[in-house]
Amino acid sequence: KNITIIVTFLMFIVAIISIAAKDIIVFLLGNEYHSAAKIMPFLVFMPLLYTISEVTSIGINFMKKIHWHLIISIITCVTNILFNWLFVPKYGALGASIATAISYIVFFALRTIVSQKYFKVQYPLVRIYIMIIILAIYSTIVININSIFYNIVLGLISLLILVVFFYKDLVYIAKNRRII
Predict the structure, then answer these.
(1) What is the per-residue pLDDT across 101-136, written as a single tens digit (0 to 9) for each?
(2) How many CA atoms lie within 13 A of 56 on its CB side?
(3) What 3-state class would DSSP assign to 45?
């Protein structure tokens, strides 16, 4: 549980900062990368949720139920194909990035649910899912605005919510120096 809290907290920080800095990165790289900055907010879901699910899916491996990895991958792949089919014709690369984000949310949820079936751990799943929703809202807003200022303000608000959600757990872990 404590490792999940630390990994989740750190990965959400990286994701939020990546989204908040997208316009700065484009400024440094040049205008030809402007279109890439528009799809980046949804692409952060892949490393974020994959990394967190590596911790929350330990029950699958502990109980040697590794066939679930294949089943979950197939379901995720079908989800990605379906949402690409729906979104790419209308939204292009942005639609593909949204399809990828949705697929990784499904991937994370399935790995975590199946793992919990075999190896119950009291992960802070409600807070994780709320942060996923907040990150999705943040991503949706910043692809529709062209203000670096508002992007950073929304990023700071997202970071504040993240800190409030995990503050007590992080203080407990730090005071007790207990990760496992």
Answers:
(1) 999 999 999 999 999 999 999 999 999 999 999 999
(2) 26
(3) helix
